[in-house]
Write a structure and sequence with these properties.
This protein has 245 residues and is an alpha+beta fold. It has two domains: 2-95, Alpha-Beta Plaits (2-Layer Sandwich); 108-244, Alpha-Beta Plaits (2-Layer Sandwich). The chain has five helices and ten strands; from the N terminus they run βαββαβββαβββααβ. The relative contact order is 0.19.
Length: 245
């Protein structure tokens, strides 16, 4: 068996997340495994770097899988992209060492969240960003972003139930303004809890609108109480952008 890694991009709008589910619902993993099965002529299971949730997108999701024999990578990638639906694409395929696993070998993940801060939503970004019409205090949000950096307990910023541990290491969280009205929240961590990025972004947006203060962010982190943090921002603005190995 030969071990391979692939880099995917996808529009998660019509999928119930990446991971296969017990119910017969559309998932990214399901579509990718069906395409691999058709191209390989047998059932192929994939490992993946991160479980993106319903409606979340990716520019750099990483998978790993095994084929019976060494493949012509150009032809194999072409075949997969012909089989896959138009909202999923394989950007790269490479042979990797036998011990490589997309999830276990990953060191860091990067997500980006997109917000249009304007009185009119962009026609071209409406599926992939959230519109905030109120004025936002960007400097205050940028200052508060530093509160999340480091090794901390993010239980208050997660909707995950039954998690073995809620401590994560956030390496960086920056908020960039591009153009006149597009804000990009960029966060890198070792891994993420369920809804963690969306709740962090939602809390920072509440701060930017004047609906909470800096102290409330610090209090939420200390409390480990989900009720102390903000509402989760909508899924459509979130992208898994890069995985570090």
């Amino acid at each position: 068996m030969v071990n391979y890694m692939g880099v995917l991009e996808y529009d998660g709008s019509r999928y119930c997340g990446f991971q296969l589910q017990a119910e017969d619902v559309p998932t990214i993993q399901g579509e990718v495994e069906k395409a691999l099965c058709k191209a390989e002529g047998r059932k192929v299971r994939v490992s993946y770097s991160g479980r993106t949730d319903r409606g979340v997108h990716a520019l750099g999701q990483v998978i790993s899988f095994r084929l019976k024999e060494e493949a012509d990578l150009y032809r194999f990638k072409w075949s997969l992209n012909c089989i896959l639906p138009d909202d999923i694409a394989v950007r790269e395929i490479a042979r990797v060492e036998d011990g490589f696993d997309a999830r276990r070998s990953a060191k860091k993940r990067q997500y980006c969240y997109y917000v249009v801060n304007h009185n009119v939503q962009s026609v071209f970004l409406r599926k992939y960003s959230v519109l905030v019409t109120q004025g936002l205090d960007l400097e205050m949000m940028q200052e508060a972003a530093s509160l999340f950096v480091g090794t901390k307990d993010f239980k208050a910023f997660s909707n995950e139930s039954g998690a073995k541990g809620t401590v994560r290491q956030v390496y960086d969280l920056v908020i960039k303004k591009t153009g006149d009205n597009l804000l990009v929240f960029e966060i890198i961590a070792d891994s993420f809890l369920y809804n963690m990025v969306r709740i962090i972004v939602g809390s920072l947006l509440e701060l930017g609108r004047g609906q909470r203060d800096m102290e409330s962010i610090e209090k939420a982190l200390r409390s480990r109480d989900r009720e102390q943090a903000g509402k989760a921002a909508p899924a459509k603005g979130l992208f898994l952008t890069k995985v570090f190995y």
